[in-house]
Amino acid sequence: MNKLKLSFALLVLPTFLFAQLDAIKIEGEAQGTTYHITYFDAAARDFKPEIVQILKDFDLSVSTYIPNSIISRINSNQKNVIVDKYFSACFKKAKEVWKNTDGAFDPTVYPLVNAWGFGPGKKEKIEKEKIDSILKFVGFNLIQLKGKHVIKKDARVQLDFNAFAQGYSVDVVSAFLNSKKIASYIVEIGGEVYAKGKKPDGSHWTVGIEKPIDNKETANDLKALVKLENLAIATSGNYRRFVIENSIKYSHHIDPRTGYPTKNDLLSASIFAKECISSDANATGVLVLGLEKAKLFLASHPELQAYLIYSDEKGNYQVYETTGIKSILKEAE
């Protein structure tokens, strides 16, 4: 997923009887990306050791970049692999979004992701015959979760939760902070965000949505600013991860129904929801659907709100936004 540029203007006002609270910040690396967590705690507790362990355990469950993770062992067809709570939650959410998007979102796309050079596997020479052969074992209908075991109809089926695992890890860390009675925090992992409450001065947590300019290294200028309160946001776009072959740009978002990278007018999809796993998974699905189908999809899912950036016939940026975010979002100057 693509990073959101975050704005942390932590202006904390003193009160009568209590000392001014200082923001506690935790930063680090996990899942091949970075994370930034900011919270307010009257006891000034440092939760970094616990959070580091949570994220390590999470990677050992669903990271395809770790050979002995649960998902990697399932992909390599090891016998008697028992899944944990993280894997189960990802599998169930993936099944839900796969059904809702008519297959536009499908974590069994993993062999195609590798073939196109966007995964840990070796990039292959792309030919129609090769894509057609892989498509025979791409489809979430070919795999089931029964109890704590995964059952495949075809041994070649492989899973990839990377399209939304970072969003779910945001929820996992948020649940931990909730268990510690932290009422004001923001969690960002790999650009996916959840914010709870307001800052002690009464102001909102604020994040920015980037302009979808092709850029693999640095942050882009902001297109919009969003105030978050008990809300998650995840952005999916084609401007961070892509390859160029024979002067043609190929996005890392693969349409599991065709086997090829998505090609439509949508440049960036920011999805808002109560849980970041829903924001993240649906952002990927919406980007694959394209603008017009995305509008229909969003109209039938009022639990999701969206800010979509697309290119018009003249190549100019245009925006489609659902009504539910108009009060919390403004265009950046």
Structure notes:
By secondary structure, the chain is α+β, with helices and mostly antiparallel strands. The protein is 27% helix and 26% strand. The chain has eight helices and 16 strands. Strands 2-3-6-7-10-13-14-15 form an eight-stranded antiparallel β-sheet. The protein has a four-stranded antiparallel β-sheet with strand order 1-8-9-16, with no helix packed on it. A hairpin with a 2-residue loop joins strand 11 and strand 12.
List the helices and strands and how they pair.
Blueprint: E1 5-7, E2 24-30, E3 33-39, H1 48-62, H2 70-75, H3 85-100, H4 110-115, H5 128-135, E4 143-146, E5 149-152, H6 165-179, E6 185-189, E7 192-196, E8 205-210, E9 222-228, E10 231-237, E11 242-245, E12 248-251, E13 266-273, H7 276-289, H8 291-299, E14 305-311, E15 317-321, E16 329-331
Antiparallel strand pairs: 1-8, 2-3, 3-6, 4-5, 6-7, 7-10, 8-9, 9-16, 10-13, 11-12, 13-14, 14-15
Helix pairs in contact: 1-6, 3-7, 6-7
